[in-house]
Design goal:
The protein has 125 residues and is α/β, with parallel strands linked by helices. 46% of the residues lie in helices and 15% in strands. Helix 5 crosses helix 6 (92-104). The radius of gyration is 14 Å and the shape is globular.
Length: 125
C-alpha cells in the first residue's frame, strides 16, 4: 500500500506523539508500505514556521531525510485535479493531498474528517 501523510501526521510521527493512532503508526512503520511526504506538506510546515505558528528543529531537513519516506512532488496534473474537486474542504494543502492521493492511487493518513467526503482511501490518524 502507498501511504500519503497529512501534515499533522508527519509531525506526530517525527515527535513520536501518542496522539497518532496505533493503526496509523503500524501502517507507517510497516516496511511493506511505501510512505510518501508531499511537497505540499513541507510547504505548509515551512509557512507555519515562518509565521511563528510552528517550531521545528533547525536541522528539520536532515531529520526528514533520515526517515524512510519517499518524496512526492506537486505536478501540473495534481494542480488541475485540485480545481475539479468539490468544495468540501477549503484548505489548499489538504485539497492538494486529496488530488495527489487520487491521481497516484494512494491512501491518505489523516485525522481530518472532512477528507472522507472525497472518497479517497483513508487511514484515521
Amino acid at each position: 500500500m502507498n501511504l500519503l501523510l497529512d501534515t499533522h501526521v508527519l509531525l506526530w510521527w517525527l515527535d513520536d506523539n501518542p496522539t497518532l493512532s496505533k493503526k496509523a503508526k503500524a501502517a507507517i512503520a510497516d516496511g511493506k508500505n511505501l510512505v510518501f511526504v508531499s511537497a505540499a506538506v513541507i510547504w505548509e510546515i515551512r509557512i507555519k514556521q515562518a509565521l511563528g505558528k510552528l517550531d521545528i528543529p533547525p536541522d528539520f531537513r536532515q531529520v526528514l531525510n533520515l526517515q524512510p519516506f519517499e518524496k512526492l512532488d506537486i505536478t501540473v496534473d495534481h494542480a488541475h485535479v485540485v480545481g475539479d474537486l468539490p468544495a468540501y474542504h477549503r484548505d489548499p494543502f489538504d485539497r492538494m493531498l486529496v488530488a495527489q492521493a487520487k491521481i497516484e492511487g494512494m491512501t491518505l493518513v489523516s485525522r481530518d474528517v472532512h477528507l472522507k467526503k472525497y472518497k479517497v482511501p483513508l487511514i484515521k490518524a
